Amino acid sequence: MKHGLTTNMAAIVRNGATGTRTGTNAVARVASFLKDLPDGMFVTLEKIDSGGSLQARRLSGGSVQLYWRYSHEGRTHREPIGRFDPHSPPKKRDPSTAGLSLAAARERCRALASQHGQRRLTGGLREFKAEQREAFEARQAAQAEQSTKTLHNLLETYLAHLKAQGRRSHVDAAGIFKSHVREPWPEVANRPAIEVTADDVLDMQRRLVEQGKGRTANKLRSYLRAAYQCAIDVRMSATIPVSFKAFAVQANPAAQTKRDPSFDRADKHPLSAGELRLYWQVISRLDGLRGSTLRLHLLTGGQRVHQLLQLRWSETASASITIHDAKGRPGRAARPHVVPLLPKAAAVLREFRREGEYVISSMQGSRPVEAATVTGWAREAAGASIDGFQLKRVRSGVETLLAASGISREVRGHLQSHGLTGVQIRHYDGHDYMAEKQFALETLLAAIEPPKRRAATKKPNVKPLR
Question: What is the pLDDT of residue 456?
């Protein structure tokens, strides 16, 4: 039996599908016959009425592999269809967990014969399977490509773009994306960016509003809208990195939502004059880097923390420091901002260890302290003494105190580096305002420090601008 079974064995196989006692015995006889086959030998179990034949081959491990054998353009081919399950019911036409009954094998052969017959003139079963394989691989490739175009990756691309522009907002945006997109909405974050809908964005906003974080909801919408707009505008603006183009974004889901202006009201809640005095008393008692940092921050007028932390030793002098303001200047060099030092502030500056590049550093000057760290220091120091304390309230508290003391808006703007826009400021006003800024800082110190503790200082011959 090198090429097939005898006529009697073929009859036994056919009887094995009847479900009768004779058929059950026949299946047992077939199973016994296949068990005794030499390893590697192909045997024909029966012809298939729609074409080809059902064959079996005993593998070296002892199991029996079933095949559909057919011919195409003068060549013989075998298509594996599954393992033989000798314990499967004879009439069972569905595969079991262990394999196929003879009836199930026969049905699978007929299905393959039908596919082959339909494609006989265009390559037959082999060509049909090749097309299926190519289609599957194409789907896999498309899915793999889509997996790199997720909302998460779009937001990461946007953060890199902000950072390359020197925009400090990339830190705030990164925190919002992590806490209010990736962590609570992982399924949306891992979805292709082009499949994210306005409803998804609204769900994110609604969650924040329900948590009492309406301002954050508006900021999230703004950042999402800007990220998607970059992916849209990349086809119109050469200033947008080509990396956005891969996301193939055509619509902006965040732009289809509305922000709630009621959440955009200022929430800085400036410290009162009394709270500023209490804050100064608290930080005056702090030792080490944290005390020096918080005192320098207040004595220089509540500068933006992240800008003050970038202060380098090369930008310090005996009576002033120079920090750099990049706020509102995307793609342009930061504007130098010179801040005068009162004698008390100059003394605080000398408390820092002069090493490395950066003044405010816990890494031997190799890099500055993080803004979040300084914010934590301030909260830890003053949180128990001042209700609802936040470091940003120091900056707004200083401006409020100076305004109440008669320091003009113009001088306050020059001291804290804000509101310096317009043609007159940019092109015509060349005054450095150093005397006015120093007078404002002396006014601040006089307001926060008890008179008996203030050293007598001679005021500059300048009147505050009103």
Answer: 47
